Amino acid sequence: MKRVGRPPLPYAVRHVTINMKAEHYLKMRRKGINMSKEINGFLDKRFNFSICPACYTEDDLSVERCAKCAGRVLFCQNLRCKRFESAQLRECAEVGYSITGVLQYACTDAEFAGSPSI
C-alpha cells in the first residue's frame, strides 16, 4: 500500500500556527519556497549559536564558554548591531527577572569571566 502525504522527516515535528506577514507569505508562495524548511533553517541557526538574534548576521560572531557552568554565550561583533558586544544568547540557567525586567542568570558576569562571586 502506498503512503499518502509527505514522506517522514528525520526529526520529530510539531504542527504550529505562526503569524507571518502577508507580504512574506505571498512572496514565498509565489516562489514555491518551502516555508517550514525556511523557518526551521533559521531556528536551527539561532539555537546553534550561529546567527545573531538581534541583527540576524552570521558574520562577526564570537561564542564563548561560561567559566562557571560551561554554557555557551554568543556575542555579536557587528558594529551596526543594536546589542554590539553584549551577550545575545546564554545557556547559563535562568533564575528569573529583576525588578527592572532584566533576565537574571545563575552565573553572574564575574563568574562567567572566571572571577569568584562576591
Description:
It is a single chain. With 118 residues, the protein is of the alpha+beta class. The protein has 3 helices and 5 strands; from the N terminus they run ααβββββα. It has a 3-stranded antiparallel beta sheet, with no helix packed on it. A two-stranded antiparallel ribbon has the order 4-5. A hairpin with a 5-residue loop joins strand 4 and strand 5. The radius of gyration is 19 Å and the shape is elongated. The chain starts with 21 loop residues before the first helix and ends in a 5-residue tail after the last helix.
Spans of at least 5 consecutive residues whose pLDDT stays below 50 are: none
Structural Rg: 19 Å
Please tally the helical runs, counting DSSP H or I stretches of 4 or more residues: 3
> What structural class should be given to the helix and strand makeup?
alpha+beta
Global shape: elongated
N-to-C terminal Cα separation, in Å? 68 Å
How many strand segments? 5
Helix content: 10-25%
Q: List the secondary-structure elements in sequence, H or E.
A: HHEEEEEH
Widest sheet, order of strands: 1-2-3
Strand composition percent: 15-25%
- What is the averaged pLDDT score? 86
| Most strands sheet | 3 strands, antiparallel
